[in-house]
Design a protein that fits this description.
Helix content: over 70%
CATH topology: Heme Oxygenase, Chain A
Number of strands: 2
CATH superfamily: Heme oxygenase-like
Order of helices and strands: HHHHHHEHHHHHE
Strand content: under 5%
Oligomer: single chain
Distance between the termini: 50 Å
Largest sheet: 2 strands, antiparallel
Length: 252
């Protein structure tokens, strides 16, 4: 359950995010994976690339949040700084789930298609532009005079996980069978855990905006940018997953 409509978040921040959130709902590239007619090979390719490329996206998250919290404290935003440092601990090691998922998905792919995929090669792929931009928005926010922008990044990305996660799980189960959920631990866990994280982020964002309403526009800009970058990343996973399927033949 979200906060009531008279909060600072709902009055000052949420209206500025409506367009960015609507783009996620309307994205045609992602819709191709969610659609009932999606090719199972494309769906599995998406999951493989999401797991492989996602390691780059997640292995620094704990560090980013902790450093943003420490920087907030340095600038006098001690309550938010403390909350971010505490939240960082909850993000430790989440990239290992993606590696585990990848190592479960690849044997399944290799049983059906040839030539076989290799986890090391997939993990060594060159980061896409969206992946590098995701690093940049975190590093730039931490180094700026508005490190509190990290709370907007966390709020939007984790909120998206709670919305897209169940949709992706249902779509993948429909295309690949219910057993695929066991190979989607990162998506499954974040769809559940990020409900609580999103509620916590919303509380902290609201407390900050109550004290600093003039920062609503900048926070909304950072949140919208992060959301757009992550949507571009998901699009990369769809396209690169489809490319895997175009390079294979049915295994004998």
């Amino acid at each position: 359950m979200g906060m009531s409509r008279n909060t600072s978040v709902e009055r000052l921040y949420t209206p500025k995010l409506e367009e960015a959130r609507a783009r996620v709902r309307a994205d045609e590239t992602l819709a191709a994976i969610i659609d009932e007619t999606a090719d199972p090979r494309d769906v599995m390719g998406f999951l493989i690339q999401f797991s492989a490329l996602g390691v780059f996206m997640t292995d620094k998250v704990e560090d980013w949040i902790r450093r943003a919290g420490e920087r907030c404290t340095q600038l006098g935003h001690t309550a938010l700084g403390r909350a971010l440092v505490m939240h960082a601990k909850h993000e430790a090691g989440h990239h290992h789930m993606m590696i585990e998922d990848l190592n479960k998905l690849i044997p399944r792919w290799n049983e059906a298609y040839a030539p076989p995929l290799d986890a090391s090669a997939l993990l060594a792929q060159t980061p896409t532009s969206a992946m590098q931009r995701y690093v940049d928005i975190h590093e730039d926010t931490i180094a700026s005079e508005q490190p509190y922008g990290q709370i907007a990044i966390e709020y939007e990305i984790e909120k998206m996980s709670t919305v897209l996660g169940p949709v992706l799980m249902n779509a993948c189960a429909r295309a690949l069978g219910r057993e695929v959920i066991e190979q989607m631990s990162f998506i499954e866990e974040h769809a559940a855990l990020d409900v609580g994280h999103t509620a916590m982020n919303e509380v902290e964002l609201d407390k900050f905006l109550a004290k600093h309403p003039e920062q609503a526009q900048r926070l909304a800009e950072i949140g919208a940018e992060a959301l757009g970058i992550y949507l571009d990343f998901l699009g990369d996973c769809v396209r690169m997953g489809r490319s895997l399927g175009q390079q294979v033949r049915a295994s004998a």
